[in-house]
Every structure is written in structure tokens, then in C-alpha cells.
């Protein structure tokens, strides 16, 4: 680092200093510090710091190929009143970084796109587990895309840059972490695949890990890959992430700021804590071991205990902080719940650790719907509907998303809704939040690989959660699969999803080693809240299609990850057997309300008859019959009708428009008698047979002499003349006629 004082022109190799000559604080000239990470396949990740955003607590730029992401970390110096970590991650895709201009009216970046929200969630889940539980300082991570090429994806690079920014900052954090993207092509694992490689890959998985090969986050989708291939990819990806961690640790050691001290919150006295626990322990055990309670009954019972205990403690210790008492009760409730799992070897609803909740399915609920299904798992209920529409209804992606994904549009997409009544609450019903966007995207990934990409219709699958007590996104995969089959979509196989939970015990020494753990299959909402993991996995009988690991502890051993995937695979097979009893395969017989699509071919000279002036005929057809017409390649038109009856009506109208009377075949080079029907400045309009649309005989083809207007030759309407036919123009479909060539032949 070089610094220079304004009173001298001497450079000093220190960051900041005060000049003894003028007592002025120096201005600093920073140079960028670059660190390289070499992957096993020869690809290189660069992490730099010290050049940009120097007023932030920490800043780093990650570069993979020509894709660069700058990440800043800023944390307030005073704790907030919240009893949770107020961490916010904002990832922004800048059109300028891709050499594009936004296509909206204002031509600037507006609200967060779905891709930005999903990437922000991935980064958040990669960083949050490594913050201390007592850290309640408002912290913001902002990821700015500086440049993006059409080769390298920025998601994993953004995670690594965020890890480096936190590492060099003074923000207390138990990192660093490293992240890699993993693909699978021809049974070969590809680390940080390019965009073109991802299009050929059966797997698109982001793995975030910390030291000692501990997994922090998993997020990905697959094309029905086998379990052993997924396990192999996770192992290799975790190993590759270690080189990133070593590099960031080196950066932190050389350039990192000393970590700030966390302000310790006031604590309750041991006497207060002891009384609170003695008053609540037996009552909480009684609640959590009453296997007849459902979600609401259990929650209400805990609330009764809470209110009674807090009131008694407050009466005995009026000077104690009510918020601290409430927080201590919450922590103790969590401890009691977790300890009971180990001691009772049962869950709070009486199930064994590998046991599924009761499942029921129903399809074809309402006649007007193209496809529908109701999936019930315990107290989680999801209603899924399928709508089939024309290819024009496909979801168009923004320019940056097109560049990074290689897709211009999607003909299959899933919309997930979680209204407040699903958990017996009230609230606003409006724009989707980040949680709903993330759950919907995960369910879509779980079903995307089973939907045929050459399906002629656009498919919109909606999933509305009517009741929720855990794993509504995986219920959306199950219900969505049934709804697709009910709509007759030829899916490759039925898909189902399940969530695996974790309750673990750690040693009390400095190593914090995991001493014991229990995996829970098909977790409840309370098991998600009280537990250490929410591992969602979806797939078919054959393989896996999507996974997402939300891990709440600072890293999960690979052994636990492998066991969780195995348990999810076993549970998934059981769910698919239950779904098979409801609907075994896609519906073959057509419903009356199913849409119909058809391609017709129209001769070039008849296109104007079908379209009409300004497209008036097509607009009228859509208004009267509901059938839309889209022009395809050359002479082909695609008709989309909401049902077969509408298609039949539209075909009648089109037949009348095109006039099915047989048109005489004209020979190329043949000589015909033409009748003038109209005089124009550029030529005359003639017909060669009755009922023929008038064709133009241009001034240049009227006579061997140059003709400025047909009147110069004394031509009039109704006059007949001999013309030669040269076929139709291949582009416009208009007839090509000439009178001039016959005059030349006569002179010869």
C-alpha cells in the first residue's frame, strides 16, 4: 500500500499515517491485491480486494473467465433490537455488465427479477450458518455484476466474492466458505461448467463448503440422474471448494482487518433461569409427548405454557427484562424438544424417524380445468392446476437471463402461492415474497426434467398451498406431477419430493464436534424450526431431479449428507407408490376442454385472403371463435384453439376465406388472354380467368418502349390482350406477367 502526504511528494509503504511536517492525514493510493485459485480442470478463479468500495467494511471482486462480480459487506456498529440475525443479501444483474440496455419503458434496472431473488437466497444460505447466534448487528451484502460474458455463470463466483469480502472485513464470521458449480456430462464431473456445457449437462449443482469438507449449502437441478452420480458430484465439489477456502484464508491473514468485538447482551440471572426452567420443563415435555396433538393444538398448548410461565416469573422478578425472559423460554423450549427426540426415540407426532405422514391424492377436481390435483400429506395440503395455452404464451426471459442461461423463453413454468390462511394467519395478499419465489422455483426444478421440451403447448402449473405444516414445496412437486398427468402431458415419469430434517448434538469443547445426530424423514414445520436442517429432494423412481439443502449449523459432514440423500430416496419411492394408486400414467383419453393445435399450409397468393387488410381477418377469427393464428415459416400457419369445437368453427371460416373453388393450373411460359379490370399509374390490373384476384401487369412489361402511364398506349378497362405467364414470385406469391416479350417474339 502506498500513501502520500500533500505537503511532500514522498510515497510511504503504509496504509495511513499522519505527516509530522504538516500534521495532515494522508491521502492513500491503494493497489489491487489479487489471489488466484486453480481448479483441477485448469480453470482459474481470481479474487481481488483493495481497489473498489474502500469505505465498506469489506469488498472483494470474484472473476471467472470474463465474468466479474463485486461484493461489499457492511454491518452496523450497534446491535439491533431483533433476537435474530438481520442479514440482507441483494444480488443485482446489471444489463450494462452484459452490454445491454434494459427493455422496460424507463430503460433502467427496476425491481428485483426472479433470477436476482433466487441468487440472493443461494448466497444468503451459504453465509448465514457461519454467523454467531449472538450476532444481531444489521448486516447487508450487496453483489454487483461488473461484467458478464456468455460463457461463465456468476452465481458461484458471487458466493466466493461474498466469502472473501466478509473474511477481510472486521465483521465477526466463522468463515470462509468456498463454492463451486458442478455439471455431469458423459458420466464425467465438470467443475464450473460453461453455459454451453450446462446445456449438455445432466446436473447443475452449486455446492458451498467450509473447512474439513463440511457442506454448508446445496442447490441444484438434475435430469433424472442416479443417486450414485449425485453423491460423486457432491464429494468432488466439496473437495474442489477447499482450494478456494485456503486462498481466502491466505487473503484474510495478509489483508484482513481485526474482527470487532461483539457487544454481549445482558443476561438473566441464574436464579431466574432456574425458576423458568423448573416451571416449564415438565409441562413442555407433556406437550411434546402428546402424540394426539395436531399443529394448532400443539402450538396453542405451548403458548399457554409460555404465557403462564412468563407471568409467574415476572411476578417473582419484576425487575427482570421481559424480552430476555421470553427469549430464554424460546431457547429452553427448543432444547427440550431436541432432547426428547434423542431420549424418546420418537417424534412429537408419534412417528418413527423414517415414517411418512398420511398421504392422500385426488385428480380431475373441476371439469373446466385442463388438469388438477389435490395432494394432502399430514396437515400440508396443496392444490395444483395445469393450464395449456398457445406457444405465444411462453415466458420470455430478460436479456441478461438469456445471456447467462442460454434460454430465450420457457414453455413450462410453475407459480407457487402461499396465502396467510394456510397457517391460520392474516396478512396482505399481494406481490410474491422471496420465500414464495424460491419455493416455486425449487418445485419447478423438480418437475422440469420430466416435462417434454417439444410439447406443442405452453404449460402453466399453479400450486396453491391451502394448509401448511412443513414441506409445501415438495408437496407441490407431488401434486404438480399428478396435475400434469391429469392434463395429458406426456411426462417421462411421475415425480415426488420429500424433506429430510436433522437434530444433532455437539461437544462443548472448542472443536464443536458433532457427537450424535438423528435424521428425520418428512419433517413437520416445528421440526424444521427446532432442527438443524431442511434438506428437500425431488425425483422419480429412477433418479433425482432437484435438491436444496437449508443447513442451519456451520457445516454438515459428508457422511450425514449421504445418509440424508439415501433416506430421501427411500421415502420418495414410497410416495410414488401411493401416487400411482391415484393416477398411474398420463391421461390418454382427451378431455372436451383440452386445447387443439394444428398447422395448415396456405399458398403464397392466398395469404392476403387469410390475413386480410391489417390482419383484420385473423382478429375477427380470434374474436368470433377464440382461435389464434400465428404465421410460421414460409407458407405455414399455426392455429391454436381452446377446444376441438372452436377449431372446427375456425376451419370453416378459413375455408370460406380461401375460396376452395378449383383454380385453373397455369403453365409456366404459357400465353393467355388477359382482361384489364383497373388502370393504375404503375400498370394495369388484369385477370386471366373468372374469379381470379387481379394481378398487376407493370408498365415495364406493357411495351418494349418505355411507358410512363398505361393511357399512353390507349389501354382501357375491359380491353383484352395477350400476356405470357412466368409463374409466381417465390417471396410475395404474386403472378409474374409480361406483354413485352410477345411483341419481341413477333418482330423476330
Automatic annotation (TrEMBL):
One of its GO terms (molecular function) is 3'-5'-RNA exonuclease activity. Keywords: Nucleotidyltransferase, RNA-binding, Transferase. One of its GO terms (biological process) is mitochondrial mRNA catabolic process. CDD domains: KH-I_PNPT1 (cd09033), RNase_PH_PNPase_2 (cd11364). SUPFAM superfamilies: Eukaryotic type KH-domain (KH-domain type I) (SSF54791), Nucleic acid-binding proteins (SSF50249), Polynucleotide phosphorylase/guanosine pentaphosphate synthase (PNPase/GPSI), domain 3 (SSF46915), Ribonuclease PH domain 2-like (SSF55666), Ribosomal protein S5 domain 2-like (SSF54211). It comes from the Eukaryota. It holds the Pfam family PNPase. Its EC number is 2.7.7.8. Residues 669-740 form the S1 motif domain. GO terms for cellular component: cytosol; mitochondrion. It is an enzyme of class 2 (transferase). InterPro entries: ExoRNase_PH_dom1, ExoRNase_PH_dom2, ExoRNase_PH_dom2_sf, KH_dom_type_1_sf, NA-bd_OB-fold, PNPase, PNPase/RNase_PH_dom_sf, PNPase_PH_RNA-bd_bac/org-type. Gene3D superfamilies: GHMP Kinase, N-terminal domain, K Homology domain, type 1, Nucleic acid-binding proteins. NCBIfam families: polynuc_phos, PRK11824.1. Belongs to the polyribonucleotide nucleotidyltransferase family. This is polyribonucleotide nucleotidyltransferase. It comes from Agrilus planipennis.
Amino acid at each position: 500500500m502506498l500513501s502520500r502526504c500533500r505537503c511532500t511528494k514522498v510515497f510511504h509503504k503504509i496504509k495511513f499515517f499522519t505527516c509530522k511536517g504538516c500534521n495532515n492525514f494522508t491521502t492513500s493510493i491503494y493497489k489491487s491485491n489479487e489471489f488466484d485459485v486453480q481448479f483441477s480442470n485448469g480453470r482459474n478463479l481470481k479474487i481481488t480486494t483493495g481497489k473498489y468500495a474502500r469505505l465498506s467494511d469489506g469488498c472483494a471482486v470474484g472473476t471467472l473467465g470474463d465474468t466479474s462480480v463485486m461484493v461489499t459487506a457492511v454491518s452496523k456498529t450497534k446491535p439491533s433490537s431483533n433476537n435474530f440475525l438481520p442479514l440482507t443479501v441483494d444480488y443485482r444483474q446489471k444489463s450494462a455488465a452484459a452490454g445491454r440496455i434494459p427493455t422496460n419503458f424507463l430503460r433502467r434496472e427496476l425491481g428485483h427479477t426472479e433470477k436476482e431473488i433466487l441468487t440472493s437466497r443461494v448466497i444468503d444460505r451459504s453465509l448465514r450458518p457461519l454467523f454467531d447466534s449472538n450476532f444481531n448487528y444489521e448486516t447487508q451484502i450487496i453483489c454487483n455484476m461488473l461484467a458478464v460474458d456468455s460463457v461463465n455463470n456468476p452465481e458461484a463466483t458471487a458466493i466466493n466474492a461474498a466469502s472473501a469480502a466478509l473474511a477481510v472485513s472486521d465483521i465477526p464470521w466463522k468463515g470462509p466458505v468456498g463454492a463451486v458449480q458442478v455439471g455431469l456430462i458423459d458420466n464425467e464431473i465438470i467443475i464450473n461448467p460453461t453455459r454451453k456445457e450446462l446445456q449438455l449437462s445432466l446436473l447443475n449443482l452449486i455446492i458451498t463448503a467450509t473447512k474439513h469438507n463440511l457442506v454448508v449449502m446445496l442447490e441444484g437441478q438434475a435430469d433424472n440422474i442416479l443417486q450414485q452420480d449425485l453423491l460423486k458430484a457432491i464429494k468432488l465439489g466439496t473437495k474442489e471448494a477447499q482450494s478456494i477456502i485456503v486462498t481466502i484464508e491466505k487473503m484474510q491473514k495478509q489483508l484482513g482487518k481485526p474482527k470487532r468485538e461483539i457487544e454481549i447482551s445482558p443476561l438473566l440471572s441464574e436464579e431466574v433461569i432456574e425458576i423458568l426452567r423448573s416451571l416449564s420443563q415438565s409441562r413442555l415435555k407433556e406437550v411434546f409427548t402428546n402424540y394426539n396433538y395436531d399443529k394448532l393444538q400443539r402450538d396453542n398448548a405451548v403458548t399457554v405454557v409460555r404465557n403462564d410461565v412468563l407471568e409467574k416469573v415476572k411476578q417473582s422478578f419484576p425487575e427482570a427484562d421481559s424480552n430476555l425472559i421470553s427469549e430464554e423460554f424460546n431457547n429452553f423450549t427448543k432444547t427440550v424438544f431436541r432432547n426428547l427426540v434423542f431420549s424418546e426415540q420418537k417424534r412429537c407426532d408419534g412417528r418413527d424417524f423414517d415414517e411418512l405422514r398420511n398421504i392422500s391424492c385426488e385428480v380431475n377436481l373441476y371439469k373446466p380445468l385442463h388438469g388438477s390435483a389435490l395432494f394432502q400429506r399430514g396437515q400440508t395440503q396443496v392444490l395444483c392446476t395445469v393450464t395449456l395455452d398457445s406457444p405465444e404464451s411462453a415466458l420470455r426471459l430478460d436479456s441478461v437471463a438469456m445471456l447467462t442461461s442460454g434460454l430465450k423463453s420457457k414453455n413450462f413454468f410453475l407459480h407457487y402461492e402461499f396465502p396467510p390462511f394456510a397457517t391460520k394467519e392474516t396478512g396482505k395478499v399481494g406481490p410474491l415474497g422471496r420465500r414464495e419465489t424460491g419455493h416455486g422455483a425449487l418445485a419447478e426444478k423438480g418437475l422440469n426434467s420430466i416435462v417434454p421440451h417439444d410439447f406443442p403447448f405452453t404449460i402453466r402449473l399453479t400450486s396453491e398451498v391451502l394448509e401448511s405444516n412443513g414441506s409445501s414445496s415438495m408437496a407441490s412437486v407431488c401434486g404438480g406431477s399428478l396435475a400434469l398427468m391429469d392434463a395429458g402431458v406426456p411426462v417421462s415419469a411421475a415425480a415426488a419430493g420429500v424433506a429430510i430434517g436433522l437434530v444433532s448434538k455437539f461437544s462443548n469443547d472448542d472443536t464443536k464436534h458433532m457427537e450424535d445426530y438423528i435424521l428425520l424423514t418428512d419433517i413437520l414445520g416445528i421440526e424444521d424450526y427446532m432442527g438443524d436442517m431442511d434438506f428437500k429432494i425431488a425425483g422419480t423412481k429412477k433418479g433425482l431431479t432437484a435438491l436444496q439443502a437449508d443447513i442451519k449449523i456451520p457445516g454438515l459432514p459428508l457422511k450425514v449428507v449421504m445418509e440424508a440423500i439415501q433416506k430421501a430416496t427411500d421415502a420418495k419411492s414410497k410416495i410414488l407408490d401411493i401416487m400411482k394408486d391415484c393416477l398411474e400414467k398420463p391421461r390418454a383419453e382427451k378431455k372436451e376442454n383440452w386445447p387443439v393445435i394444428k398447422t395448415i399450409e396456405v399458398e403464397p397468393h392466398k395469404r392476403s385472403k387469410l390475413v386480410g387488410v391489417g390482419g383484420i381477418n385473423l382478429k375477427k377469427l380470434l374474436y368470433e371463435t377464440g382461435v389464434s393464428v400465428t404465421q410460421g415459416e414460409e407458407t405455414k400457419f399455426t392455429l391454436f384453439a381452446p377446444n376441438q369445437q372452436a377449431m372446427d368453427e375456425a376451419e370453416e371460416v378459413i375455408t370460406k376465406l380461401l375460396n376452395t373453388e378449383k383454380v385453373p393450373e397455369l403453365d409456366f411460359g404459357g400465353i393467355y388472354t388477359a382482361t384489364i379490370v383497373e388502370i393504375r399509374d404503375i400498370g394495369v390490373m388484369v385477370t386471366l380467368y373468372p374469379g381470379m384476384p387481379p394481378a398487376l401487369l407493370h408498365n415495364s412489361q406493357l411495351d418494349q418502349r418505355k411507358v410512363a402511364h398505361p393511357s399512353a398506349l390507349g389501354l382501357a378497362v375491359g380491353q383484352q390482350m395477350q400476356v405470357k405467364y412466368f409463374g409466381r414470385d417465390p417471396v410475395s406469391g404474386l403472378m409474374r406477367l409480361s406483354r413485352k416479350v410477345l411483341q419481341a417474339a413477333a418482330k423476330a
